[in-house]
Amino acid sequence: MGCFHSKTAHLHSPEDPPTDLPDSKKPDPGEDGGEGDQESQVPAFKEYGLNELRRATHEFSTGYIVSESGEKAPNVVYRGKLENNRLVAVKRFSKQSWPDSQQFLAEAAGVGKVRHKRLVNLIGCCAEGDERLLVAEYMPNDTLSKHLFHWDKQPLPWEMRVRVAYHVAQALDHCSMENRKIYHDLNAYRILFDEDGDPRLSSFGLMKNSRDGKSYSTNLAYTPPEFLRTGRIIAESVIYSYGTVLLDLLSGKHIPPSHALDLIRGKNALLLMDSSLEGQYANDDATKLVELASKCLQFEARERPDTKFLLTAVTPLQKQKEVASHVLMGLTKTAAVLPLPTMLSPLGKACARMDLTAIHDILLKTGYKDEEGAENELSFQEWTQQVQDILNTKKFGDIAFRDKDFKNAIEYYSKLVVMMSVPSATVFARRAFSYLMNEQAELALRDAMQAQVCIPDWPTAFYLQALALSKLGMETDAQDMLNDGAAFEAKRSNSWRN
């Protein structure tokens, strides 16, 4: 492959480290001698033409969207195939994100220089007209989120979870050495698995989401404390987010850091552990990983460890380094192909296009049928005055909701939440929608999260969170929530078929 001369070649990102060596002469950052071979297979960073990327993604077809959030949503990632048959991931930014094309090209060129075997490397960009696009290596074996929360055949084994923690620590440490200490939105969606089943950290997180560099975590409960205070993230914020990833790995589910820290302080750390991992780990190893998560989640940024500490802590926990990742994960090594997209349900599609009328109709038709046993339990105790009051309050709330009297619906449902001993996911969902109709998106998001607490794998809760996040302008996070909802929808559908 010949040398490609691009107008990005002379551009330097303000975060680029000074160097006297061209990229091809830089010392090998890997510890096992295989780094140079791996990086030699990654094409040189270049600027792509818009027509080439259009052809690669079938004109940015919705069928090629990775996040399944609809073609009009900003910051969408597409699968694509270039003319040389190389599979790539193409991230398409919203037109408002980067009005200055030169600023975008400079930022992309800087990220493109950061190469490592633990990163999903950035191999190009495009800035033509209003389009702002990034091109990265394609990872065929899904995200950590899919393998951890929505697995089909087997839960992610303990040794693989330790390997994820190690590889991500390696990637962050390398980025830190390259003077790229800020990583945006580190979460289970940013960690992907290559054709060998090895976990890698997406390079998209090194790129600012927009020119102002603002970034949000997927869920407000997981946001670093300093971001809530200042609206900005710092290098130590990345360590906090790494701690939330450790919680995901330990528990196999989303656990708010505050709840996890309460368990840790109460000497109940092992209650965090995923029950599917029983017998796979030594308690001492699990305790060390829990303690590391606790250090990362410290409220004061200065009290959190650095990336070198992360590496030192997780390296000794690996006990099966000689076993290939695809073997640990039960994956069959095959040539990468573009998978078919997951289909959204009618509710998911309505939330993606923010069709409030359709959402209201679907919530009405669905009623309370997803809460098995709740109606029967109330009927059984109907003779008590307290339960009669609950039923009447619910009835008036449902009538107000049906009649689109959303202010009264909020009032009745709020009374109901206080009165009921067992919270109702549907009541939280209906109140969340009512809040949205009253332009109270933050309260809607809180209620949708409460609905998820009631029924952890309920797609409706994820779809309503996506809608609220979109209303708050957090489009990337809304896409993630839609993807979660679609995955639970598919899992539920498969279980019914079987």
Descriptive report:
The protein is an alpha/beta fold and 498 residues long. The chain has 20 helices and eight strands. A hairpin with a 2-residue loop joins strand 5 and strand 6 (131-137). Helix 5 (158-177) packs antiparallel against helix 7 and helix 15 runs antiparallel to helix 16. The longest helix is centred in the C-terminal third of the chain and has 23 residues, at 475-497. The radius of gyration is 24 Å and the shape is globular. It starts with 34 loop residues before the first helix and ends with a helix. The relative contact order is 0.10.
In short:
The chain has helices at residues 35-40, 50-56, 101-112, 144-149, 158-177, 225-230, 235-251, 257-265, 283-296, 307-314, 325-329, 346-352, 356-366, 374-380, 385-402, 406-419, 425-437, 441-454, 459-471, 475-497; strands at residues 46-47, 76-81, 87-92, 119-120, 122-128, 131-137, 191-193, 199-202.
